[in-house]
Structure formats: C-alpha cells, structure tokens
Amino acid sequence: MLIMRVLGARPQFMQEVVFRRAVDARGHRELMVHTGQHYDDKMSRIFFEELGIPQADINLEIGSNSHGIQTGLMLSKLDGLISEYRPDVVVVDGDTNSTLAGALCAAKLNVPVVHVEAGLRSYDRRMPEEINRVVADHLSTLLCAPTRTAIGNLEKEGISENVHLTGDLMFDCFKYFVRNADESIMSALSLAKSEYALATVHRAENTNDISRFEQILKGLSLLPLPVILPAHPRILSNLNLVIDRLSAKNIRVIEPVSYLEMLALELNAKCILTDSGGVQREAYFACVPSVVLRDTTEWIEQVDLGWSVLSGARSQAILEAYSACMNSSKQYVENVYGDGDAASKVVSLMEAMAL
Ligand code: UD1
Ligand code: UDP
Known about the structure:
This is UDP-N-acetylglucosamine 2-epimerase (Non-hydrolyzing). By secondary structure, this protein is an alpha/beta fold. The chain has 16 helices and 13 strands.
C-alpha cells in the first residue's frame, strides 16, 4: 500500500513515530507530506531531530495565514501531489487545518481518506478545530476513534459504517517514550518534583480575546506555587505585557520545549493546567491532576474519572478548579485511551479494507 500522510502541527509529529513504525512493520510505503503549518524550529524541527523522525518526503512550506488562505494554499499544492503520486490512501489525524486540507483534497480526487482521532466533538462550532474534525469525519472512508465517546458522537451524526475503536496514538507515543523523558530539564530549570504547576495555553478562543487571555493568566497567578509556562509562539506578543500588568511573579515563561523535555515536566508537575488536547491526555497518562482551561472538552473520560476539572477562563474559577482537582477522588482506568497499540490497529484496518 502507498500511504500518503498529511501532517503539519506539533502533536502530529510525535504521532508520526508510532504510525511510521506500524507502517514499516507491515511492509507498506509511506509518503510523508509536511504542510509547513508549524515551521519554527521549536515547533517542528526539534521533534524530528529528537525523536529520529525521517525528514518529510515533501514540505509544502505553507506557513501561517488566515484559515481560508492557509487551507486554500495547502489544497492547491496537495491537489497536484495526490494526482501525481495516486496514493492508495491519504491518512490525516486530529483537527488542524492540515487535517482538513488533506481530507478534502483526497476526497475530491476520490482517494480514500483515513481519519485518525475521529469522532471527537466539543459541540462548539466557534472552534476552528471543531469545523475541521466534523468535515474530516464526514469525508472519511475509515474512521479510527480513540474512545467510545467518539464512536457515540459519530453515531449521532449518522456515521456508523467503517468506524472502529483503535485507541489514541498519543497514548502509544506516551508508552513508547515515557522511559526516555528528558529529566535534565528539571535541573536546567532548577525545578523539584511536585513543587510547580505546568501550564500551556494556545487555543484561539483563549488567546485571541485579550480579556479572556488576561483572566487565564490572572488565574495562574493566583495559584499557590510556581507555574512553568512553555509558550506557544501565538501568545508571545501579548504574554509579557499581560504578565507585567498583573505583576504575576509566580509565572515563569519559557520557550516551547522538546517532547521528551515536556514529558519530564509533565511527570514531575504537581498539577497541569492546559487548553491543549494532547497535554490534557498526557496529564492523565502520567497520573497528574489537571485543570482544563476551556468551557468544554472532547476528552470527557478523564473528567468523569476525577483527574481533570474544567475551569473555563475566569481567574477565580481556575483557582477553584485547581483545588477541586487536587482534592477530588480519582480512579485510573488502564485502557480508557486504548492499549498503546492504536497505530498498528489503524494499519491493520487499512489492510482489512483493502484500501
Ligand atoms: C494548531 C491547530 C490546533 C492544534 C495546534 C497544535 C488549527 C486550526 N489549529 O493551532 O488544532 O491544537 O495547532 O499545536 O489548525 N506560529 C508561529 N510559528 C509556528 C507556528 C505558528 O509563530 O511554527 C504562530 C503564527 O502566528 C500563527 C499562530 O502561531 O498564526 C497560530 O498557528 P496555527 O498553526 O494557525 O494554530 P495553532 O494555535 O498552532
Ligand atoms: N508539547 C511539547 N512542547 C511544548 C508544548 C507541548 O512537546 O512546549 C507537546 C505535548 O507534550 C503534546 C503536544 O505537544 O504531546 C501537544 O501539542 P499542542 O498542545 O500544541 O496541541 P493539541 O494537543 O492541543 O492539539
């Protein structure tokens, strides 16, 4: 099988490791197309180097732009590529503009689409990610759901054919790399286990609205411990301004870190506060309580199990959610996000469908 995988954003890079292993193990060929959606060294190259991911076969070098222009530029380049290579299948994952472009372009050219991480819903159409995942799901030939909740969401939209529970590739990654977590970041930042909180903020709904962004940082500033904040580049322009205005002395902003450094920061944190889907799940994998800095989450399982508390963006609510998740009773269920073999299940399903 010739598999074209279209990727472009940070969480899709680590998943490439486990996906590629599964593809190689079954003797298939992968053509990796990096859209260039994430392009800073600390948003892209660092992961390829650290995790030994081979260079993308093709980099579209699209870069940042408005959603329509960014997606349109990807489409116009993918159109020629898919026509030229005629892959047996195009694989996309998650909910980024790269996911949308890969799925739409392949579907228009009658190439089967596999959506990994299918069926997640926030039911909030103001989120660009929600639009991307709904469209990708409805265009896909094979839908690989990470959770039972995701399968239920698809059923509600009338999609039940070729939907399979595979588990979450992010959990595959965690299991594969957790022993290699780069603990040297702890001494480099003079951090001790359980003496700090780790935070990330990058969602458009939290960063584009400056008053909401300020409320979130104020919430972090109210916590009774230092907060380490590896900053996604989209927040840099407002970040120092807001931190100065709040005189938030406990917030320590650092550059984005590598995946293995991030794993160490997560494993050693007392609590994780995040609007990231990946970081939220990693908090659960690492058995660290988390506050989800959003009004909704697609990963409801860990809220139900007591590990995560949704806070929204009001500062006081963030403080309350911190106390709630630190004090809640928690249950760790081993296979909530699969067995750590999601990637090989995805490849087996593609074979079984003779895509
Ligand atoms: C995107 C995805 C989101 C995913 C996240 C993973 C969409 C709509 N959103 O969000 O689903 O959770 O990736 O990290 O696709 N920027 C840089 N350098 C970079 C990349 C981005 O400076 O290497 C800045 C640019 O100003 C850009 C902004 O960050 O406009 C946002 O980047 P973008 O890729 O559009 O969205 P993310 O927030 O990264
Ligand atoms: N991550 C990282 N360095 C950072 C911040 C995040 O390696 O400085 C990793 C994190 O461990 C997770 C992934 O990036 O594996 C999540 O990406 P992000 O939060 O950008 O996107 P989302 O998961 O919300 O789509």
